[in-house]
Task: structure prediction
Amino acid sequence: MKLTRVSLAPFYVMVVWVFLASCVSCQRPHVVKIGAIFAFDSVIGKAAKPAIEAAVSDVNADPRILNGTELKLIIRDNNCSVFLDSISVFQVIAEEVVAIIGPSSSSIAHMIGEVANGLRVPLVSFAATDPTLSSLQFPYFLRTTPSDSSQMAAIANLTDFYGWKEVIAIYVDDDYGRNGIAALDDELDKKSAKISCKLPLPVGFDENNITVALNSSKLRNTRVYVVHLSPDPRLRIFKVAQKLGMMTSNHVWFATDWLSVTLESFSAKDQVLLNSIQGVLGLRQHIPDSSRKKELLFRWRNMHKKGSIDSPLNVYGLRAYDTVWAVAYGLDKFINDQNNVTFSFNHKLIDMKASKMQIGKLKVFEGGAFLRKEILQANFTGLAGQVHFDASERNIVNAGYDILNIDQMRVRTVGYWSKDFGLSVSPPETLRRKKYSFSLLDQRLQTVIWPGGETEKPRGWVVANNEKPLKIGVPYRVSFVDFVTENKSSHEIVGYCIDVFMEAQKHVPYDVPYSFELFGDGHFNPSYNELVNMVYNGELFAGDQNGYGGLLQLPLTSCLTYEHLGPVEEELDYIREGPSDPIVAPGCMVVAPNCTVVVSDDTVEEQNCTKVALDPLVVGVTHIMAMVEGQTAPSSLLWPAGQR
Result:
């Protein structure tokens, strides 16, 4: 039997090829690049840059993570410019980075987010808080800081806690400002409150822009302000408000977390600026104390003494540090799962022939979707607290906010806000350990010092500026002149009804600008129906949403003279079904011999319409329904004296 010799060479070649291929696929890369893009010279950037560099150094020194792989940082300064950032992002991505940390600006994040989508590079921001960045439009955008939706919920909770139903919003007119205030509008709506006026400021606003905006707000009755700006070391908004006399006890000022970040950046010589923000309430991201946080603060102080850094560490510096670790943990898991760090050309970019920008050289990160998934699954305790993402919106799960109150030269923490527990005087982590059961009735804060140094809660509104006085219609009659008429010599409006009005006005705890408007020619008795129609049409009443209407809306449902008197039930039915559009305001009075209406102050705290006993000669029925922004005050029927 003859044996045939078979060559095993092809088999051995195949085995060696499979072995080498498997070795290549499992081999850990020696170096992996990550990018970082933000404004170095901003309040946030001054703390973020050294924090990111320290985090990269710490990751590389820790053998428990990325063992055998070095993390290399490619960092660029965008100088707070969308134009310059559009160049920087391509420069960074051309270095074949697997993730980008930043930016610190929401407007810039919108632009980079589109690039990150196209090249499948996860974009992880530590400071871009615009809520719309969580939309499905930006699947590769993640953030290790809370969305502004969270702090706007806290602001809405504060306004509701103190009983204010309207606020004036002041914000920078960009994606960050507009979308943040839109979130505030949504949160206030849940509390049956609203933004009565929006005052946008240009991106590069100056003190003149602020002055114009604040002066325009004086024509409104609302005195509760919510300020949503970028960090401003000069605190210009409050400096101008102080000059305009708007930091007094009649005003309420809320600031989102831009103020706390600004204050954290202050040096000792800057503390004098606290005088301009007496009584302001602000938010600060709640950061639990930890040994790791204290260690970094100790290192930070040493670097500051050596002159290697010139800015204090703030909350966004802590967030930036944690962001590097979140990317590192995701990358470690990505590599351990035997994924390769590989890039490929996009043929559509090559076909663009954009030689000057060299767009054709940009590569798509093939493992971008997998790395994004691994980062979203990160769950560790960082310097700023627990780092854990809400997978649906790709935001970090928010720990809550500290409620800050500026009292003279001190910044006091008067309470805390969290989604789970609302407002409390104990930190959220303490309440969780105690397994605290949340109730709206348990919400409380420590004593707040308001503008002007007062501890009593401000009313939050005033009667609008004298430029829009309350117009009071006065019938110019030829009979019953003792009730109301014009003095022929002095041309003053006098009479019994005027005396009642003047006396009632003394009990109103604020100034009511008004003017008497004669109705009729004095030769014939005017038509009361026409007078009421003029009130209905707004000809004799200056109360609108810019003036009195936001304070107290009083639909005049019926004004009846002796000619209209009938069975009480009939009149009440007429009143209930009558028109409700005509509006009068606090202190308003419709003056007529047979019908006198006096309305005094009716705030949220004191809902007691004043009842005025009329002279027996005045025969009439008047019914007023008082409605205070979502609440119905007790109504008062004014009957002829002795007939109640």
In short: Residues 143 and 395 are 5 Å apart (CA to CA). The two ends are 133 Å apart (CA to CA). DSSP finds 17 helices and 30 strands in the chain.
